[in-house]
Predict the structure.
Amino acid sequence: MQKAPQMEWKKPTCMGEKPSRRSGHTFSLVKAPAGGSVVYLFGGCNSKTKPPGPCNDLYKLDLADYFWGKVETTDAFPPSRWHHTANTVNDTQIVVFGGFSDNRGTTPRYFNDMWILDTVTDTWSKPPPLEGGKTWENCPVPRGAHSSTVVDNKALYVFGGYGGTGYSRHDFNDLLVLDLESWEWKDIETKGEVPEARSGHQTAYIPGKLYVCGGWNAVQQFDDLYILDIATATWSKSVTASGEAWGPKRWNHSALGVFSVPFWKMFVFGGNSGDLMEGGNPQGTFINDLVVLESGSNTWSRPEVIGETPSPRADTPMVFDEQTSSMIVFGGWSNRWYDDVYTCRVSDVVGPPYSIEAISPQIGPITGSTTTIIRGMGFESVKGGVTVRYACMKGFLETEGNVLSDTELSFPTPNYEKFGPVAVECRVAIGGKDLTCSTVSFKYFSVTSCDQCLAFGPGITDGCIAMSPVSFVIEARDSNGVKRICGMDDFCVKIRDMGGLDDEDHFYKLLQEKEAGGEEVEEIEEKLWAEVDDIGDGTYLVTFLPQRPAKYQIDVEFLGSFDGPAGPIRGSPFTIISADAENGDEVNELAGGLFVGSLDSKTKLLKEFCNDKLKGLRAPIDSNSDVKELITVKEHLRDVEERAEEMSLLIDSTTASLQYLKAISTPGMDRKLDAINNAKDLWNDVLTQAPVTETAIVPVTKVWAGKTTDKMTLYAREMKRLYYDFKDREFFNYSASPKAARDLMVETEKMLEEEKKTLEANKHLCSIFGFPDMINDQLTIMKQMESDIAQMRKTWDVTEELDTFILRSKDILWREIDPEALEDGGKFQMKCVKGLHKDVRWSDCYKTIDKNCKDFQNTIPLIQMLGSKAMRPRHWDMLMKATHKTFVPPHKDPDLLLGGLLSLNLHEFVTDVEEICDQANKEEKMEIQLADLTKRWQAIEFLAQMYQNTDVPLLAIQEEDFEALEADQLMVQGFMASRFLAQFEEEVIGWQKGLANVSDVYMFVQEIQRTWSYLEPLFIGSEEVKRELPEDAVRFAGIDVDVKDMLRAAWATKNIKEACNLDGLIQKLEGISEQLDMCKKSLADFLDGRRRQFPRYYFTSEADLLDILSNGSQPAKINIHTPKVYLMGKSLILSSEDDAIGYSDEGRPHAVSLIAGVGKEVLDFEPPVPLNGKVEIYMQTILDALKYALFCNLKRSLDRYQKLLRHDWVNFTEEGSDRPADAAAVILLGLAVNYVQEVEDTFALMGEGEAQAMEQYSEKQIEQLSQLIRLTQTKLGKGERQRVMVCITMDAHGRDIVKKMILQHCEVVTCFQWASQLKHKFRVSPEGASFRDRDPELRGPNGERAEIAICDAILPYDYEYLGNGFRLVITPLTDRIYVTATQALNLMMGCAPAGPAGTGKTESTKDLANALAKCCYVTNCSPEMDYRGLGNIFQGVSSATSS
């Protein structure tokens, strides 16, 4: 069982500055701020003073490592005292009251002052009423050896003590309370049994009550316990906890209340004890026991104490540490002072903050897994896993559980098979805490085993009366055969009516019909309901109602409750025969005559069996004994062995029945129990005699066993010869008729019956002499011969049915044949044949019918194919030729019978017949498809759309017709590959040529139409093309006439097949196509020349380029192509004839301005550009003028930047104008140039010693950025707002770069953080700059140019017009791409940013192009892109110098 709770004392090793030996001090525990606990020691009677006396030392003990430290205080502190009290308030303060002084000088003998120790700062103070020397109203009279207790951190209760004012000496029993919030004293008027005046007592607080125990006064000592109900101020004396129930009288002890579940506990330690009046000892006896009060019952207990117990002592204070569940004491007095520390672990007694009270259910199986509920309290007070311990005298097991609520937890019981069915005690631990002190009891029971359960009663006894309820008892037993003591098992009882007892019974007649007809009919069962009643003591009463006199089978099965072995119980199934009588209720009673009589019969049967076997086993046998005598003895031995289980069940069930009847007070059971016990003793005698007899007959057995073995060997040879003769009998051959075969089988069966008698005799001999396997081969041969006869009967039945089916099929008319019916019939016959047993498949009869059935089955598909409508007379002729037989085919003989075709033995010509039928079907299919082909192409005609409102049709074919053309070509191609082409060869070849011409001609027409419609506007409608390509224009004029005539002729014919199959048409189309290719090539050479003159044409589509070249003399018409040539432009503003600028000398307008295609902006040319000459010439002039206009803007803007405020400069507008003076791109460039210059000037200042120059510039940047932000809050136009937003984006990046350089302490202009940035500059290019001599016209007065420096690359600013669009936010990743790409440009190499889709590779490259003012083309690689298209891109890039 569970171990009794123990309290273990230990003496820890202390370190630090230990207090001196003392007694009468106080010991107060507080929670440390960093965790753990600290105990404060104050005052006491110190052994070190001379003479020893009170002191005011203050020490504290850290319970984490038991380290002492003395607390030195410099401010006011209490005077020396002992027998005072100290209480902890709010875990941070200690309140000290009263005590005895050393009575020296002016010090009063007793104290009633109060001091408060702040444990956070370790400083003393007085309560407010005592500050400044005030008097404290209602303050208790001075005293010591009293008790004080803090209640709920709100009030301090003081009771009793010894003292008084002046030199008076009194013991007190007054009760005063101090309100710790208002600091007001109040004298409590109490009621009830007030304790006598006393001192040296102790008071413990238990919620709602104060417990006062022990003490003494000048008259007597006390062994009582008083309880104060705080709410009613009523005293009561506990009878159960006073006097002898507590023990000897005691005083100067220590006591405290400890939280415990379900009830608090009070611990009392040490003190003085005895009767001073009788003992003559003024101090009494010192004791060191530790007793415990259960507050729920107010009774004392003395748990076992182990460990290193402190020596007996008094005046020893005690505290309780919740974290370690330990009591801690220090010092004390026992005719000497002590300075030792002891701890006592009381967790077994206090227990965890939860307890248990009840368990449900209170019993369970030893296999465990029973869901169990334990009720108690405080389960939710601790977090963590639940452990339930089941303990008994042999040991314990634990299982895990779950908390359901504060008062309930659930768990599965553990498997207790290790210890067996015993009573256990349960305890609980939660969250790693101790097990509960309280326990609950649980009882394990063994589980039922199906192999040991018994059943008995009239319900399983022959002769029970039908139509009356009858019962029997199931007795559950465990695996050891011990009867169960409780119920809760599950049994399944099935009762089946096995048939009545006369020929009129319906079920009996049904069985007779089945046997007579040889049919296998599903067995019909009638089931009866049975009621199983759990008695609760391991027995179960089963009651049912037999419906009629009949035979019943009763199956009783144990279902494996509680994981016990499941299955039928002993003796199941039981078979009974019910009877018909009128006194059924009496007969069917459990204690009735039927059942009791059956028990007597069983007892008698057992006795007779045992006596008979004992007599036979004890018969004398020697070497002269006859074999019959030996056989008789061995039969007795075999009976004992074979019926051992039967006799054991009879004994167990009879004994259990009699004990059950005795338990229900049935008279006469003792005598019957004696009788069955006597019979049981006889059975034991039989079991004892059997091995003795078996040993005695061994010599004789060996002699006769040898003789029997020789006899069996000879018999085995005879059986083999018999089997060989059996296999040669005529009924196995197909040549025998069915009737003759059946007669032979009857004759053979009679012969086998005679042989079986000899076989059984030999089998008995083998069994008796212990080698039953020796006859097994002969038994197998006999069974095989019997089986062969039975299977051959079935074989001859199938043979008759098959022959009849084939004969009937031959008489069916050919025109009335139902192939599906024939096939179903054939499959049925084949199923019957294949269903015959494998043991007869060797026979000639089976092999013959199997072949006949297969031949017929193989013929049926051929007959079905020959019945196809595709069969023509030529195909029937081919069939005669293949079979080498002549017959009148169906188209000549309508009354042809199926037998006529079956006589051809078609199954011998399967391949030929299938080939002929397949040819017929394929030829029919080809014939139908050719007819459909002709009909379809007679209806297919051209579609047409008139070319540019002329009468020239552009021909087309519907999509579905073109798909049909392809499909028909494939179909005709298939005809040509067919081996059955000969019948339709000429027609198929014609279609092959016709459809091929349709396909070729249509392809030519489509290509010619496309090329002609593309070139016709150029060579016929464009004078410039005629002028540039005169020879090709004349050539195209002739082509134009031929194409139009050809298209008109085809449209007039309409039908596609007819129009495409004209003689010589393909040759004519080939000539036209060649002529068109020549014209197209000349045109392409012409366009390449223009592209070389103006490279941006490489990036213009051919159609747009032709439109530009065709209308080059009319600039207004090509203005729509401006965005395709000048990427960020939308259109040009052209002068009109009436303007001041007017037209040029060639009568063409001037390009005055460019309207931006990105954002809102207009850029004026300086000066306007005359659009004279060829279009490719003046477009290049416009491009140069754009760059020059931007350069002029830049020079003015840089000069203006120095004169205006920065935020005014951004959107500066000339007087009289409504738009900013500078382009957005110029503003961005100007900002960048000045930002770079300012940063590099800052680096110069830092080089001159101004260390904070960069920080000052950063502040300037922030102010510049703030000014731009404020500018966006004003009323701005869309274009102006866009340029300000882009400036903010660039300024934000510049601010971030400067801050990063500050963080990285960059101090020189060559630092990498600055060198890796894109730096726009307007200066004279240094040595090593790229393209120093390019664009000399775009230079300042001293040769300055706009350029970009990054790392060691210096690239020119290319003045590509950028419009007024957005710019990307520049991230550190963008800066890295800039460095990589510019290095590639500087080295004349390519750059390929790589990364996942959507990460900004393309946009970053485009933004870099904007920063460098370079033209950027984005080309998507589509599937149509080839090497020519890629070559044009590279050629255009190279020609346009877009590096």
Summary: The chain is about 40% helix and 20% strand. The first strand starts at residue 6 and ends at 10.
